[in-house]
Amino acid sequence: MAMIDVSADAIETLHLSVLRFGFGQLPAPIGQATLAGLQQEAEEGKGAARRAEQSVGIEYKADIIALGPRARGFLGSGELADLLSTVFRERFVLAEQRSCFTSYDEGHHLGPHLDEPAAECAVTVIVCLAAKGRALGSSATGLELRVYGPSWPLDRAPRVIFPSRPGSIVVGRGSVFWHERPMLRPGEHVVALTACYRPVVRRRGRRWQVRLGQDVGEPARGRAARNSRMRRPT
Length: 234
Fold this sequence. Notes:
By secondary structure, the chain is of the alpha+beta class. The chain contains 4 helices and 12 strands; from the N terminus they run αβαββααβββββββββ. α1 (8-21) packs across α4 (78-88).
């Protein structure tokens, strides 16, 4: 059974959105069985979640949950790799150390940022697993991703806003286009599977190899770190 079910027209629309805004969204391409498995894995990992919080520079507050086998299988699948290849016109491989489940509750948020290091976050993928509590017609909500331009706009007006809907996938050039998740309001809750991908290049002999980046700084999308080192959420 396919994990991702999406038409050629939907993929082309996604490609055009990425060209125009830097990001695009597929509303509900994930099969129910796959979505349920990812939701269960995120729920089971909550007991070991780590709080990521910072109030200076890039402000953020969220709970970080390590990837499990289902999440790694989905993010590293050939289906998702083919989707990204079609949309971005090149091949990518998962940067697992930059990827995780991210859980947001009331008061949680992720301020405007670019994903770093750019070499490992050439493409950003955000899979919404759960979203609850949004009041219909409300303009003040954290159940959305706001995307800006390559430069931070003085008026803070987003170029496009993607609502957080369970089963949806957002993809984009997160290291190039500024984006943020606003603060969640009372009763709101979001769980997302968030990942970074680095490009691969074709070498002699028709073999695909990872294009390794030289920047080893802290990622702006960071995760709960190995060796208890704190990183930022997505």
